[in-house]
Amino acid sequence: IPAETAPQWHDADYINNDKFAVADMSRDRVFIVNTSTDIIEWQWQADQHFTLESGDDSAQDWTHLNDVEVLPDGRLMVSMRNQDRVIFINQTTGVDESWTLGEEEEAGDRNKILYEQHNPDYIPDEDGGPAIIVADSEQNRVVEFQRVNNSWKETWEYNANLDWPRDADRLPNGHTLITDSRNRRVIEIDESNSVIYEKEIPLPYEAERVGTGPESKNGKSAIRENLSSPPESNTKISTLGRVESLMPDVVVNTISFLLSKYPFTLNGLVTSSTFILTSLIWGALEWRWSDWYVQRPIKNRN
């Protein structure tokens, strides 16, 4: 892989010994390459289906196409992050609109179906699907949708104390492995939504449970596992969550990446900065209201 290209190939899915499907973020496309011949055998360009008015208005990051998965029937499931959609592409006929999950809304809208999602995993019929489990990153939750009567229905959600999750895998034992990026951790929750494993990792992107197969392979749908979402009372708004609305996403994300090299989170930085600033203001006011003033030597005002 050329060094100048690799950072922009956001994901790749193994097809067989010679072929991979690649999510090429830099060129807003998905392609299938034969690694024996170095020939691109098939490709789909985002502008075949989406207008330039959709997604990000930056030419450098129009779609932020960040995930591809080849399904058992040969279709490709693709995550269009900046369009807030997961789409299904038939290699012959193109995007199947009837299967699209999500819709693009105004940038400031909340309670979207999806909001700049990452790493959707497809759960097939034999495991209780068709279903999709996906990290709904900007809405700080992991969510699952089930195909019901030719449309998508939300069937499960976990949002307790998550901060910008970017991956979620349904494991064969019914547990869910979650990459909680800004909280700098990977967690595993059981069927009752209790955290049974937690590992601190600087700004993780994706995690796999070794020995269970790739992503959500062999994992069952929430309906098949009879999973229920945690009650709303379990959800707490973090310090960062209270100030996120005042900061553009690009600023929050940039600070998070910079802090990943240091042993504290953005949430911790906000909390510490608030404490330090409050202490300085309190100290200054206490001095101002006291009977003391600065002079050499220090004297009492009285």
From TrEMBL:
InterPro entries in UniProt: 6-blade_b-propeller_TolB-like, Arylsulfate_ST, Arylsulfotransferase_bact
Gene Ontology MF terms: aryl sulfotransferase activity
Gene3D superfamilies for the chain: TolB, C-terminal domain (2.120.10.30)
Ranges of Polar residues composition bias in the record: 226-235
Signal peptide region: none
SUPFAM superfamilies for the chain: NHL repeat
Pfam families recorded: Arylsulfotrans
Keyword set includes Signal: no
UniProt keywords, alphabetically: Transferase
Record region (Disordered): 209-235
Superkingdom assignment: Archaea
Statement: the UniProt record of this protein carries the keyword Transferase: yes
Protein name: Arylsulfotransferase (ASST)
